[in-house]
TrEMBL record, chain A:
The gene is rbsC_2. Keywords: Cell inner membrane, Cell membrane, Membrane, Transmembrane, Transmembrane helix, Transport. It is a multi-pass membrane protein. It is found in: Cell membrane. This is Ribose import permease protein RbsC. Pfam families: BPD_transp_2.
UniProtKB/TrEMBL annotation, chain B:
The keyword Transport applies. SMART domains: AAA (SM00382). Residues 6-248, 260-500 form the ABC transporter domain. It comes from Dyadobacter linearis. Keywords: ATP-binding, Cell membrane, Membrane, Nucleotide-binding, Repeat, Sugar transport, Translocase, Transport. PANTHER family: CARBOHYDRATE TRANSPORT ATP-BINDING PROTEIN MG119-RELATED, D-ALLOSE IMPORT ATP-BINDING PROTEIN ALSA-RELATED. This is Galactose/methyl galactoside import ATP-binding protein MglA. It comes from the Bacteria. GO terms for molecular function: ATP binding.
Length: 315, 500
């Protein structure tokens, strides 16, 4: 059946998020003089970076038809692990970085292993590991924030290169790498296949378990990058950090057009989703709207985005 | 003028400028079975959707019992007495039979008005359901949960639902596509009973023999146009097919003179508990071996084991004389075995992906450079396959769901062929495929065999098995009852062994 009445809405559903983002930016540029300044845009970029990293990770997961609720806990665990090795005059910078990233890799791989071997739904497995992760972060830090970190470590969260905040550089590099993985590699193609129709993917000779292992592992590594960034920015390893981050990340992916039923989604969409969330909360800050209202606005946007996405699928 | 219960006059419907229905008319008598025939894309489903009020026509009128059904929605046409039994049965599995029959009408039974609030008493609907089921001669308890029923039983419940709705016209869309031969007989008996009671039936099916057995009148659509209405007795299979495709088909099954060479696959004493046991046959290069049997005989189950989707409990599989352990589809593909499933949507296609991405999915190893996709090679291979199999698509980036059934099937076959197998298992390759595309698929199968491919063909259609196979393995209830050569096989002989 050819597409019919909703053709215009369909088009809007496909590009609606980009359009909405553009319109919002234009409106803000004219209505709020402080919005369109270099320093404010750099602030937004820095604020968005952690959520965007997590959102990239969870986009991979959602495309394969899964979900990862343990992102926020992984941020805490990896931040604490990195902070443990980041005191001044102890280890070279590479040690806390590799320890943090390694912890994220192991945590993600553990998620993937349990999900593929136990056949328990990812929602439940990662709900469990979310709690496990939070506990681990508290155990490793003995429940106390780990402060007194080296300057070189803190540079990751607060430094600039040619005037550009380091987190933004990480964000851009991560975006490019993730987009390449998704669009140009065999693994990326297999992610869409597994999420689009898992039995058919298996019957096509794809090692579905391997694909899932990779996806959750990559998600763990990206969470670790987020954890390290956060720790360096607040110059403290906080066992309670990152609580609720998973929801913002999932929201960014969904606003960006990733279907929760799997099989569709793009990194560009997710990036725009994360930026949209960042711009809105920034502008509400500039307009002196209290954070209570910000949460209400954000919720409305998430639902609105999915409704639009629904129009995009009607064919 | 005979008493028509339903008259459709010059119905037209366009979708974004494309005419899906172009002046289609139909007259339905009281108590007749009226078959609606046409290839996929002929406009049957659009016609049905307009009839039940799911789509509004652009022009034309529908007169039901003398009244114009103008602007009726689905609920209203249902109340007036037009019901449809959909091909994919729509039921709520966790509810009981009675609850399904009266779904949405719970209150109407007791005559109480109101909606959503208030107590429900199942005893009343159970009683009424029992009456209707008994009237239809169906032995199902109204208190059984729907999920415990077979597909055929669910269908009968749907018919019961239509009857309890006082349906005067029942539309059946491919009602026999998922039920066994025995169940088909029960369905046909039920249809004859309904006819006797004055209920009219519009019957849609691709199966020729059924059409001639059950229908009184046949209307043919082609490309959205009304071609003609004939009494079933005036037509035979060939004249009906030429009405449908607009030309003479001639020889349905292409002649082949296949030289049979070395053995590719052999199975010995293959068995799986509760499914099949003691299966023995071999397939040679260039040979087509048919697997025949009634529904539930174990044909697909054997294919699934050979392809590594399921594990066997006993026996062994050899490829070119060497015993192999096949425990996954990946292993099967590596051993040169390809499988085109009967379940195109479930096991064949990734609906959200493009034609290209689907077609190369099993052969990414030849379309990659390290971890990266070699797009150029992928595009060349896809273009070649689209040309070879004559896949009708607006481009290789077209979403596969936008293709017709026959072309989707070709995409799945293309995917398997690109994996370069030496043996290919085709499980109901022409199911849900229209006549023209069927013929093309037969030619393709014959071509593959002539080029040395070993082929296992699974089919419920006996003419297909007889027309294509060099040898035929007949199965009955999971046992191998015969291995026939092309020369000795006849329709009667196969049936004899299939029920043995």
């Amino acid at each position: 059946m050819p597409p019919t009445q909703n053709l215009r809405l369909t088009k809007f559903g496909q590009y609606g998020i980009y359009l909405a983002f553009l319109i919002l930016c234009i409106v803000l540029a004219f209505s709020t003089p402080r919005f369109f300044t270099v320093s404010n845009l750099l602030i937004i970029g820095t604020q968005v970076s952690i959520n965007a990293l997590l959102a990239f990770g969870v986009t991979f997961v959602i495309i394969t038809g899964g979900i990862d609720l343990s992102l926020g806990s992984m941020v805490a665990v990896t931040g604490v692990v990195a902070a443990t090795f980041a005191h001044p005059d102890t280890y070279p910078l590479a040690v806390p970085l590799l320890a943090g990233l390694g912890a994220g890799l192991l945590f993600g791989a553990f998620n993937g292993l349990v999900i593929t071997k136990s056949k328990v739904p990812p929602f439940i497995v990662t709900l469990g590991t979310m709690t496990i992760g939070r506990g681990l972060a508290l155990i490793l830090s003995k429940g106390r924030p780990i402060s007194n970190l080296s300057d070189s470590f803190n540079f990751i969260g607060g430094g600039n290169i040619f005037g550009i905040p380091f987190p933004i550089i990480i964000l851009i590099v991560a975006f490019i790498v993730c987009a390449v993985i998704l669009n140009k590699t065999v693994l990326g193609r297999y992610m869409y296949a597994v999420g689009g129709n898992e039995p058919a993917a298996r019957a096509s000779g794809i090692r579905v378990g391997n694909v899932k292992m990779w996806v959750y592992t990559i998600c763990g590594i990206l969470s670790a990058m987020g954890g390290i960034l956060l720790t360096a920015r607040i110059t403290t390893g906080q066992p309670n950090a990152g609580a609720g981050f998973e929801l913002d990340a999932i929201a960014a992916a969904i606003i960006g057009g990733t279907s929760t039923s799997g099989g569709t989604g793009t990194m560009t969409g997710t990036l725009i989703g994360a930026l949209l969330i960042g711009v809105i909360s920034n502008s509400l800050d500039l307009l002196n709207v209290t954070s209570y209202y910000q949460q209400v606005v954000m919720g409305v946007i998430i639902i609105g985005a999915v409704v639009l996405d629904g129009f995009g699928k009607k064919d | 003028m005979p008493d028509f219960i339903l008259t459709v006059n010059q119905l037209s419907k366009s979708f974004s400028g494309v005419k899906a229905l172009d002046n289609v008319s139909l007259n339905l008598r009281k108590g007749e079975v009226h078959a609606l025939m046409g290839e996929n894309g002929a406009g049957k489903s659009t016609f049905m959707k307009v009839l039940i009020g799911l789509l509004a026509p652009d022009s034309g009128e529908i007169i039901f019992e003398g009244k114009n059904l103008h602007d009726s929605n689905v609920g209203e046409t249902l109340k007036k007495g037009i019901s449809m039994i959909h091909q994919e049965i729509l039921i709520v599995p966790e509810l009981t039979v009675a609850q399904n029959i009266f779904l949405g009408r719970e209150k109407s039974v007791s005559g109480k008005s109101g909606w959503l609030w208030g107590w429900l008493d199942d005893s009343e609907i159970n009683e009424k359901s029992e009456q209707v089921l008994k009237q239809l001669g169906v032995d199902i308890s109204p208190k059984t949960k729907m999920k415990y029923l077979s597909v055929a039983q669910m269908q009968m419940v749907e018919i019961a639902k239509a009857i309890s709705n006082n349906a005067k016209v029942i539309i059946m869309d491919e009602p026999t596509s998922a039920i066994s031969d025995k169940e088909v007989e029960m369905l046909f008996k039920m249809i004859r009973d309904l006819k006797a009671k004055g209920v009219s039936i519009i019957y849609i099916s691709h199966k020729m023999d059924e059409i001639f057995r059950i229908s009184d009148t046949i209307t043919v659509l082609r490309d959205g146009k009304y071609i003609g209405t004939k009494n079933a007795t005036e037509l035979d299979q060939n004249s009906l097919i030429s009405m449908m495709v607009g030309r003479e088909i001639g020889q349905m099954f292409p002649e082949g003179n296949t030289a049979i060479n070395e053995e590719i696959l052999s199975v010995e004493n293959l068995g799986k508990k509760g499914k099949f046991s003691d299966i023995n046959f071999a397939v040679h290069a260039g040979e087509i071996v048919g697997l025949s049997g009634l529904m539930g005989a174990g044909r697909t189950e054997i294919a699934r084991v050979i392809f590594g989707l399921d594990k066997s409990d006993e026996g062994m599989i050899s490829i070119s004389g060497e015993t192999v352990q096949i425990n996954s589809p990946l292993k099967a593909l590596k051993n040169g075995i390809g499988y085109v499933s009967e379940d195109r949507k479930g096991l064949g296609l990734i609906p959200k992906m493009s034609v290209k991405d689907n077609i190369t999915l099993s052969s990414m190893n030849r379309h990659r450079k390290g971890i990266f996709i070699n797009t150029k090679r992928e595009e060349t291979a896809t273009a070649q396959m689209i040309a070879d199999l004559r896949i009708k698509t607006s481009g290789m980036d077209q979403k596969v769901t936008h293709l017709s059934g026959g072309n989707q099937q070709k995409v799945v076959i293309g995917k398997v062929l690109l994996a370069a197998p030496q043996l290919i298992i085709l499980d109901e390759p022409t199911r849900g495929v229209d006549v023209g595309a069927k013929f093309e698929i037969y030619k393709l199968i014959r071509n593959l065999a002539e080029n040395g491919m070993a082929i296992i063909l699974i089919s419920s259609e006996l003419p297909e098995i007889l027309g294509m196979s060099d040898r035929i393995v007949v199965l009955s209830k999971g046992r191998q009852t015969a291995l026939l050569s092309r020369q000795e096989a006849t329709q009667e002989l196969i049936m004899k062994y299939a029920v043995a």
